Amino acid sequence: IIIPLYNKEKYISATIKSVLAQTYKDFELLVVDDGSTDGSADIVKSFNDERIRYIRKENGGVSSARNRGVVEAIGDWILFLDADDTLESRCLETLLVPIESNRDVDISAASFFIERHGSKSVDCHTSYNGIVPSNYKWLFLKKFFLRAGSFLIRRDIVMKNKFDESLSRYEDMKCVLEWIRNTKIYVLDIPVMTYQTGNSSLSSMAKDFSR
User: N or C: less crowded end of the chain, CB within 10 Å?
Assistant: First the structure.
């Protein structure tokens, strides 16, 4: 699990607690601090769990933080999680089921909750259980969506197609379009995380709209 962190002291504690509360326990959590200037680092370091690895780097943007996490990770599977979102307790357990029963699956994805102004609802992009028959067509029709925190992906796929650090917008979509090119995706109609809206605190690199 890779969390890029930049000035999220209000949220990072709840995010980490949701990871540590997983029913599936065999994971590592890499928190990549992209040069935070608030108290985020102290909050991360206050957790005493050997599965947590705190990595501090010079500010370079969310893409560079995610890429650093992928390089440092030792697991075969990656789950990206934003520093202000939370996982359901059975997130990893749920996403691992298709992988364990279908050895050729490259991405295991599920639905998720969206929380707006204290109101929580289920996002229904994923309304199907099984192998996606046409990756690009189904993505275009919004029958599934690879939201950070809602999918597992093979690490070697991400290593071949890392986040474009020259972009500050839609860098995740560029990756998704590469990741799904020749991969087998299994989707589940089960919410596994909560995506928080309105909590954005972009790093200085991301504030340059020309990028």
Answer: C
Distance (Å, whole) CA 92 – CA 58: 30
pLDDT tens track for 174-193: 999 999 999 999 999 999 99
* CA pair distance 52, 48, nearest whole angstrom: 8
pLDDT tens string 189-207: 999 999 988 655 555 455 5
* Beta-bridge partner residues of 86: 194
d(CA 175, CA 106) in angstroms, rounded, equals 14
* CA 106 to chain CA mean position, Å: 15
